[in-house]
Amino acid sequence: MHPAIRPVALRLLGAVLVIWGAATAAFGVLQLIPGDPVNAIVGTHALVGPEQRAHLRAEYGLDDPPFAQYLDHMGRLATGRLGDSYQLQQPVWSVITDQVGPTVELALWAMLSAVVLAVAVTLVTSGRARWPRRISSLLELVIVSTPPFWLGILLLTVFSFHLGWFPVADTGDPRSLVLPVVTLALPIAAVLTQVLREGLLTALEAPFVLTARARGSAEHSVRARHALRHASLPALTLAGWFVGTLLGGAVIVETVFARSGIGRVTLQAVADRDLPVVQGVVALSAVVFVAVSALLDVLYSVVDPRLRRRTGMAAA
Amino acid sequence: MTATTGAGGAPELLSSPAAPPEPPEALEPAALVEVDGLDVRFGSGPGQVYAVRDASLTLTAGRCLALVGESGSGKSALARALLGLAGPTATVTARRLRIHGEDALAFRPRDWLKVRGRRIGLVSQDALVALDPLRPIGREVAEPILAHRLLPRRAVEPAVHALLERVGIPDPAERAHSYVHQLSGGLRQRALIASALAAGPRVLLADEPTTALDASVQARVLDLLGQLRADGTGLLLISHDLGVVEALADQVAVMREGVIVETGPAAEVLSRPRHPYTIALLDAVPGRRRRLPVAGADTATAATAAGTADRSAAPDDRSTASGATLEAPPLLTVAGATKRFRGSRGNRRTAVDDVSFTLRAGETLGLVGESGSGKSTLAGLLLGLIDADGGEILLAGQPWSGLPERERRARRHLLQLVPQDPLSAFDPRWTVARVIGEALRTAGVERRDRHAHALTLLEQVGLSSVHLDRRPLALSGGQRQRVAIARALATRPRLLVCDEPVSALDVSVQAQVLALFRELTSSLGLATLFISHDLAVVREICSRVLVMKDGAIVETGPVEQVFADPRHPHTRELLAAVPGEIGRAYRARFEAGHHQRPPETGQPFFQQPSI
């Protein structure tokens, strides 16, 4: 095999394993949740008799032993057929593509704001003076320990109901994005700031920083050109993880701010045991995680040139 | 800029940042940095600690002042104070501190920015960490030029190439894009020097500039520094290595606990030291040592240790020991050991190439070679941490290499490693008692007996019960290495593999740890493989030596014979590169073109080590 193909092949194999594992776990968990999927299929039409229910059950293969159902699901997943939603009576694929847009928009804005905020706060609070760091640390702690739904409600109460600056619900107005983004971004920014500042303070102790200072570089240049890059490596890992969780984490924000999106679809699907939709969302999350981790690997090697020649390094 | 900062001296705009401006007075060498009564204190109130106390020195164009002393003696704190970089917790005061004629005591932070890199450059130890590993060296070298806005942007790149060329980096245009980890130790250090020179300072502070380097690379870097001095740069050389000092310094200042205890012309201080501390420091230099201090706590200074050194290992000790070992069966037999690694482009690199030797109980075998010659890989093979691709290793007459780990485990205790840097080989949160306790547990010592055992081991290595509750960071370098030895001894090994065990230590501490090694190997009958790039140390402690180059053993024999009459050109090269007296003797001989033993007597401070 060509040496360049090997890492790519390994990564693809890993991606398949991750998606398979996630789909299996989702299937298992849904089996444990009490409730009858037929209810989801028939919806609120309660006038469905037992015979029809039995018929539906057989049609969807719900009478089969769990393992046979599992194989059936996996088979369909492997061939890319996500099936139809039990409840919405439309293909899972179109359910997801309809709803994923607002969530992705929300997640990307939240991530971008969190990173910008974290870098800015880090640079401002890592100076010689101790008090900005103490105040910032305290604030970060408060934000991290605040439940997101409560934070969302708090923001809504203050900025929408009292001040009326932002709409209460999604109106299509770009301003309606602000509060949800802030709700999602603040906790992420708080955690990233802590990691970044820790890394920055460690990096500022490094010998190359003394060298840089001895060259006559000003303090801000030492921080921005040398230390921040070193500090960003651990923060990058964390940021990647956050991107993955934003997809699922959006559910609370979408509920509080009455936004449509993948989170609410998922919540509904889980409640109704709408297995095809749940499986679809799980597969999507797994794909996102795999893609993000691949992207991170590329970013690592951009930030840290020492990682660029990882293949075949001698142990010596 | 205000009057206090003294804009004077600034008008000379550089055509090239690499070329130092002409000295204002060409007749008399100008005093570039004048220091009088400098104090550097850390902390405040009653807990205040003096790192430097009442230090006075002058740096002159074209001269080299060496600041000598052990780690913690305040050398680096003094150097940083000259850059205004003593740190936020430091208080710097002085009767007089003038840099290029300006009063540095009145400097504000932004005045210091103008001094750093432009008036005074800094070259630190170990370019691998002193240059930013995430930036190409070209950008690192360019930084001072940009920070001081010396050149328009488009002129920076050619200037960087010229600087890299000046410090002897081949292919500067291409190398400028390399990262630190892609360069060899020597090239890295040159790049660091280039970055210190970039803004054209006339004073260079070289803080242990060659400490992490192989002897031959060190020699070349010293040549470069010597060249800079000849070109008119004033050098402050900070070093604990008196060989380096001897090679470069015009003046020497000996520092101890923050105080300069002796100062004078280099030749005089090194040949007729007056202060007892200088004498002790000189005595502790391997190869120059008259007698070894007793293995004892290294809290005692070298001076007192040397004073009570009557019990020190006599020359006969080793010869009888090595004589006795000849009859002993080999403890370790290595036959044709080979290890290859796959290189970065799929090509295979032979790290250990058909190596064969034997090691007997009570014998100390030296393994010397430059970094990258395969010494550590060979150690890994012996320890069974790396699987050999070929050849056989027998431990106590039984197969060792190629066995599954399960079968090796029962005999692992026979063979222990003493690492170079115990600080990174210990868990920093573990106390000494726990570190040794863990080793005793694997050796099968019952929990209730471990404390007593640990205490015995500590006493064996010259420590006491007070050290049991300390954590690695609270120990000195020498104490740490003693704990590492105690840990290795906990399993009652018969063979120690020591990978550069004393190269991170100050000379006087080094002498004490070496004495401990000697005492332990003779009293316990241990076989020792002593890996070192320091030939003087090997010469002092080993009975036989293996010289390694590119994975292969190129020369082997009794230490005395190999050092007196090296056969292989590489061995001669290694010997000639040793700075100071030993190297000088060899260099002189090679220049003379015939081989004779180095002079045995007649020189006041070079004594033939008793072998």
TrEMBL record, chain A:
Q: Where in the cell is it found?
A: Cell membrane
Q: According to Swiss-Prot or TrEMBL, what is its membrane topology?
A: Multi-pass membrane protein
Q: Which residues form the ABC transmembrane type-1 domain?
A: 100-300
Q: What SUPFAM superfamilies does the database record attribute to this sequence?
A: MetI-like
UniProt keyword Transmembrane, yes or no: yes
Q: Which Gene Ontology molecular-function terms are recorded? A: dipeptide transmembrane transporter activity
**PROSITE patterns the record matches:** ABC_TM1
Q: Name one Pfam family in it.
A: BPD_transp_1
Sorted alphabetically, the Gene Ontology cellular component annotations on this record are:
plasma membrane
Q: Per its UniProt record, what Gene3D superfamilies does this chain match?
A: MetI-like
Q: Which UniProt keywords apply?
A: Cell membrane, Membrane, Transmembrane, Transmembrane helix, Transport
Q: Where are the transmembrane segments?
A: 12-33, 106-126, 138-165, 177-196, 233-257, 277-303
Superkingdom per UniProt: Bacteria
The record's similarity note reads: Belongs to the binding-protein-dependent transport system permease family.
Q: What is this protein called?
A: ABC transporter permease
Its source organism is Parafrankia colletiae
